[in-house]
């Protein structure tokens, strides 16, 4: 892993977010959740890094990387972390891409 702009951040965000959307309680209500990949500028000294999280009902963000289980209002999370370059996947899309690529992401 490098510290160049737009590289994958050190941590397990892609795997943790992917596992979150595979959980039975999410799979039972797939229309309520989106796996999201994007750039965040506020995780590491204002350096934009790739990151993954889960959104619920387009209002709530679940931050589950590195053992966290934090919940934010989406607007607050996006402002706090200066989110950009967002790609949201339905649960079905995320599970299909996981199988196709053989890794947690990013896929695009």
Question: How would you summarize the topology of this molecule?
Answer:
Blueprint: H1 13-22, H2 24-27, E1 33-40, E2 49-56, E3 60-63, E4 70-73, H3 74-81, E5 84-90, H4 91-101
Antiparallel strand pairs: 1-2, 1-5, 2-3, 3-4
3D structure, described in words:
The protein is α+β, with helices and mostly antiparallel strands and 108 residues long. 31% of the residues lie in helices and 29% in strands. It has four helices and five strands; from the N terminus they run H-H-E-E-E-E-H-E-H. The chain has a five-stranded antiparallel β-sheet with strand order 4-3-2-1-5, sandwiched between helices. The longest helix has 11 residues. It starts with 12 loop residues before the first helix and ends in a 7-residue tail after the last helix.
């Amino acid at each position: 892993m490098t510290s160049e702009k737009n590289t994958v951040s050190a941590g397990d965000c892609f795997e943790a977010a992917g596992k979150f959307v595979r959980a039975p309680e999410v799979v039972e209500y797939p229309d309520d959740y989106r796996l999201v990949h994007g750039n965040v500028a506020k995780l590491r000294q204002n350096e934009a890094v790739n990151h993954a999280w889960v959104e619920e009902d387009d209002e709530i963000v679940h931050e589950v990387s590195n053992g966290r289980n934090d919940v934010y209002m989406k607007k607050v999370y996006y402002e706090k972390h200066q989110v950009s370059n967002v790609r949201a996947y339905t649960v079905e899309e995320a599970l299909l891409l996981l199988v196709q690529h053989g890794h947690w992401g990013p896929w695009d």
